[in-house]
UniProtKB/TrEMBL annotation:
Binding-site residues for NAD(+), renumbered to this chain: 193-200, 216, 280
Top-level taxon: Bacteria
Cofactors that this protein relies on: FAD
Keyword set includes Nucleotide-binding: yes
Protein family: Belongs to the class-I pyridine nucleotide-disulfide oxidoreductase family.
Protein name, entry field: Dihydrolipoamide dehydrogenase
């Protein structure tokens, strides 16, 4: 036996004339494609994985990983500003942006082996580094090879959408693909778009010493609960980020100093040294030969049903290219659904009711399930429970009392959603994701014993408030008063 092969039982793709045959052919080695490929091969399927760019896709190279590494550097810089209130004074931080750049790329390099060709080939996957395109409904071509698979999975991701603003395309703007390559700190970063990418980057660059202006045509973090966004907005303003909400950019012009943006309402033009475009995403569908394969798509991306099947029943599509929830954890979840459908022939369907999302500002904004407005719109009889962080002892000790836990209940204590604004809210939202996924009632969270003093206790406190009236009301008082008479 070849002891260098960790998966000797894995089926391997076979060559049939000039075609490669396999059980599953995955197009795109980002969060979505890698999850399917790794899962499928370890479950015994023969897998071909085709990637035309960097292994790891957006998340590893130009998305989650570099952005969170940059945010970690920004936290370090900010600590010096926040520390005097604790009686600890640091000198003003000496931020060397080239070293920040190296830190970010060091983190990418540390994680990269997990997504590498070597790891996947070690698992038994055949990796082809080329662009893939469908020749017909059952054949893909990549790097001169023809691949015929029982099932295909399209996981080609998305890229920054650049709006058709005059002058923008020629302005030399940055996107998530280029901003993490900067070795020198931008003097004045103008950010177009106040979604998760825009606000995360705005705060991080501001804390690392750039002047930052965000121009958002509506309001920042427009998908989130307004009361939660208000806390994040206040934090951005306190950091010195200039927020221009409800403002539209009319044109962009490259100048000797950088870029100048004219606004549609005729307000003063904004000039910055750099411009980041973070105005949403476009699916990567061009050149895939979707028509040849009979795969339907819209502007939002490839059309899929609840089982993530495309209009070609042999082809699944997952991740950002479908235009649904665009998160790495959503891609991983969808990969599991495809594996159940494609390998086990189970009719598994997606259900996003318990899919969390977190914007990694400071404080973080975490959401799972429905916001109050969404629950009311859906016709639920809504009860809202809330616990401000100011009531939490750990938050007081750490002087981080901005924020709250808010829980939306339906009838009979059913948990419909939770919103948390807090430092590390992303670590706290898992409890509510589990509660919703498991169909738990609010009493289950109210009855938990949590360690003191933790921020998580704010979740228990919010849950407990559902019972406050009953617990401390006249009936309880009457019962307790009555029972005391029998106690010697
Ligand atoms: C700045 C930023 C920060 C983010 N932060 C977070 C976060 O904190 N948490 C979170 O959950 N999500 C975050 N996201 C979103 C997350 O990165 C994406 O949802 C995730 O990467 C999508 O994975 P994917 O596999 O669908 O696509 P991708 O990662 O884009 O992978 C698609 C791959 O397909 C390849 N490809 C495309 N066309 C072809 C072709 N024809 N042939 C072969 N290969 C092809 C591409 O080269 C690419 O490698 C962030 C995104 C950005 C931009
Ligand atoms: N923490 C995370 O999980 C995280 C972080 C970053 C990105 N992401 C994912 O990536 C996706 C894309 O992020 P995004 O922030 O680019 O997109 P987005 O669609 O979430 O937000 C884009 C924002 O840009 C605004 N906008 C659009 N056109 C504009 C214009 N011409 N001028 C000014 N503003 C304009 C929109 O009103 C919107 O608020 C997110 O929706 C999310 O799924 C996740």
């Amino acid at each position: 036996m070849d002891t260098t092969d960790p998966h000797p039982a894995a089926r391997r793709p076979s060559h049939d004339g000039d075609a490669i045959r396999c059980d599953i052919c995955v197009i795109g080695a980002g969060s979505a494609g890698l999850s399917v490929a790794a899962g499928a091969v370890q479950m015994g399927a023969s897998v071909v994985l085709v990637e035309k760019g960097e292994m790891g896709g957006d998340c590893l190279n130009t998305g989650c990983v570099p952005s969170k590494a940059l945010i970690a550097a920004a936290h370090m810089a900010h600590a010096a500003t926040a520390s005097p209130a604790f009686g600890v004074r640091y000198p003003a931080p000496d931020i060397r942006f080239d070293a920040v750049h190296d830190h970010v790329h060091g983190v990418i390099a540390a994680i990269a082996p997990h997504d590498s060709v070597e790891r996947f080939e070690g698992l038994g996957v055949m990796v082809i580094r080329a662009a893939a395109r469908f020749l017909d409904p059952r054949t893909v071509e990549a790097g001169g090879a023809r691949i015929q698979a029982r099932r295909f999975v399209v996981a080609t991701g998305s890229r920054a959408a650049v709006p058709p603003v005059p002058g923008l395309a020629e302005s030399g703007h940055l996107t998530n693909e280029t901003i993490f390559g900067l070795r020198a700190r931008p003097e004045h970063l103008v950010v177009m778009g106040g979604g998760p990418i825009g606000v995360e980057m705005a705060q991080a660059f501001r804390r690392l010493g750039s002047q930052v202006t965000v121009i958002e045509q509506q309001s920042i973090l427009g998908r989130d609960a307004p009361e939660a966004v208000a806390v994040v907005r206040a934090a951005l303003l306190a950091d010195g980020v200039a927020l221009m909400e409800g403002r539209k950019v009319a044109s962009v012009r490259r100048t000797a100093d950088g870029v100048t943006l004219e606004l549609a309402d005729g307000g003063p033009a904004i000039t910055g040294s750099h411009l980041l475009v973070a105005t949403g995403r476009r699916p990567n569908v061009e050149g895939l030969g979707l028509d040849a394969a009979g795969i339907a798509a819209s502007d939002k991306g490839i059309t899929v049903d609840a089982r993530l099947r495309t209009s070609n029943r042999s082809v699944f599509a997952i991740g950002d290219v479908c235009g649904g929830p665009q998160f790495t954890h959503a891609a991983g979840y969808q990969a599991g659904i495809v594996i159940r459908n494609a390998l086990f022939l189970l009719p598994a369907k997606v259900n996003y009711a318990a899919l969390p999302r977190v914007t990694y500002t400071d404080p973080e904004l975490a959401q799972v399930g429905l916001t109050e407005a969404e629950a009311r719109k859906a016709g639920h009889h809504v009860e809202v429970l809330s616990s401000p962080l100011a009531m939490n002892d750990r938050a007081q000790a750490e002087r981080r009392t901005e924020g709250f836990v808010r829980v939306v209940l339906g009838s009979r204590g059913r948990i419909l959603g939770a919103t948390i604004v807090a430092p590390r809210a992303g670590e706290m939202i898992g409890l509510w994701a589990l509660a919703i996924a498991s169909g738990l009632k609010i009493g289950a969270v109210a009855g938990l014993v949590l360690p003191y003093p933790t921020l998580s206790e704010a979740s228990k406190r919010a849950a407990g408030s559902h019972f406050t009236e009953k617990l401390f009301g006249p009936t309880t008082r009457a019962v307790v008063g009555f029972l005391q008479r029998f106690i010697p």
